[in-house]
Amino acid sequence: MKDTLPMDEKYKVHMSKYFEEYERSLKDVNGFWNENGRIIDWFKPFDKVLDDSKKPFYRWFINGKTNLSYNCLDRHIQNEKRNKVAFIWVPEKGEEKVVTYFGLYRRVNAFARGLLNLGVKKGDKITIYMPMILEAPIAMLACARIGAVFNVVFSGFGEQALAERINNSNSKTIITADGGYRKGNIIQLKNIVDKAIDLSNGVDNVIVVKNTHTEIDMEPDRDYYYDDIIEDGYVEPEQMDSNDPLFILYTSGTTGKPKGILHANGGYPVWIANTLKWAFNPKDEDRWWCAADIGWITGHSYIVFAPLLLGLTSVMYEGAIDYPKPDRMWEIIERYGVNLLYTSPTAIRLLMKYGEKYPLSHDLSSLKTLGTVGEPINPAAWHWYYEVIGKSRCPIIDTYWQTETGGFTISPSARLGLPDLKPGSATFPMPGIDAEILDENGKNVKPGEKGYIVIKKPWPGLMLTVNNDDKRYIDTYFSKFKGKYFMGDYAIQDDDGYYWLLGRSDEVLKVSGHRIGTIEVEDGLVSMKEIAEAAVFGKPDTVKGDTIVAFATLKDGYEKSPELIENIKKRIRNNLGPIMVPEEIHIVSTVPKTRSGKIMRRVIKAVYLDQLPGDISTLENEASVEEIKRAVDIIK
Ligand code: ATP
Ligand code: MG
């Protein structure tokens, strides 16, 4: 079994508070959420915590009226947070910009007024396709203020994916920028928007922020510059019903066609504010940096809304974490004195691949807590993050959750009681999350046995539905195990009650009657000093069921050779046993990933088996697929 790492005494808070709160959250749903539901202000208090009369369409904080922009801004400017810094915005190149809570409040109001002047109304859908500039959170907050439902589309997507999302969300207004910077290049966002509109059902308004000052076409009576429509003043925040839709966001598309997830005005903010507080225990004076993109749920919940709800100061970074140099992330931490860092395993593996010299050349002593999200973190990456970055004094908060869940579902809780951490385990459920692991027949598995992770009861962050597709909501999430929320991941709970996520349940390997999570083999590969990243899948085999095939990348300084591959197989056999040894290991320069940085095993498998790869609109790097094709051609 995996190793346990006792934490520094300083962090060894007693777990009793956690267990107490956790039990209460499940036993006394009303009492618990009556109290914790007040982490946001309500114009009109809710008169019931949960309505579960139309299962699985759960509704929270019934008849409560609130507004997310009010909760992120107005209530802070009435107290000592008024002049506190909300965001330190760090560009890829050049000087940072700082905006205070009052400044952000003013700017959100001015843009909200601009939207109203264009005729945008409560309930209208708006697509936001923007780079990581301050106007992006301003746009999201302005939409929330007037009750427009926003749909942020990651700015790395091309026109086809953008057009699909404009149509599916039924947006008639688009907010964009002339261009965005990415690794020294300019991405012509407005041009992409123009092409997407041609492919779409048509839109009424396009609002353009001048960012890169590149030449663009402006269509009269449709396209407006942001600077021309904003108008200073106060816009009364709409009184939104707790269960009015707040935003639509498409999932990453790792396993299939992205789903348009719809979140609500009441339950969602309550969930993300509480979970950020429980998991990371941020202090008022802390500087928080969530190094994600606002185009993903992580950016929505933990760059924009939860930190503002809690009145924190955040770093918001425009560019790539290894540009212009591999030490960019460490430089930002040092320069801005970041205390809490939240990033992904894919980022850690990338920075690890460059070697220790980059982090070691910076003073990272401001760091107190380190977080991760997006995929299971390989123990090797965990140790590097913990030892090299955190100098063995910062707990690793491994947060397991999904677009659909709104916020963290399984994560260590630094506030309620931090458990001894085990590298690679997301530890325990957040309060309100009644998780369990089931076998194919819906029976509870024993501790140490693998199965499907489900959540038995609703919690406030659960999506309202899949946009325009209630059937898909029921079929995808509530059908495999009737009435239970199916997360689609494979997991194990060990004898101490810790949860370990083992990869996607539809990617599980079935080798000679044994079920093996993809991550179990990948962890073994990534723990080799030569390997930076690994992706495995099962190749159908008439005798064994599946044989394991791996694609891997090497760390800087290693060369591929047949001896290396044999040697790696030998070590896997010794460390993990014969059943875990990949029959084939192919060394490539990159593995296919989603634009949010997740390994796309289904694409590798399809290419390998010469099948259609399904929806690849979220694929980040087409060259990686070509490379796999070439590798496969050589074998065949
Ligand atoms: P799609 O649903 O379209 O296939 P996706 O599942 O990648 O895309 P997201 O909602 O961005 O879309 O990602 C959620 C998934 O990411 C989880 O279901 C899980 O597989 C994985 N994940 C996220 N965080 C963790 C974590 N800390 N440990 C393990 N897995 C994680
Ligand atoms: Mg998913």
Automatic annotation (TrEMBL):
Which molecular function GO terms apply here? Answer: 3-hydroxypropionyl-CoA synthetase activity; acetate-CoA ligase activity; AMP binding; ATP binding
- The residue ranges crossing the membrane are none
Protein name, as recorded: Acetate--CoA ligase
Which one Pfam family would you cite for this protein?
ACAS_N
NCBIfam families (alphabetical): Ac_CoA_lig_AcsA, PRK00174.1
Which of UniProt's keywords are assigned here? ATP-binding, Ligase, Nucleotide-binding
Q: What is the enzyme's main class?
A: ligase
What SUPFAM superfamilies does this protein's entry cite? Acetyl-CoA synthetase-like (SSF56801)
Q: What is its EC number?
A: 6.2.1.1
Lineage of producing organism = Archaea, Methanobacteriati, Thermoplasmatota, Thermoplasmata, Thermoplasmatales
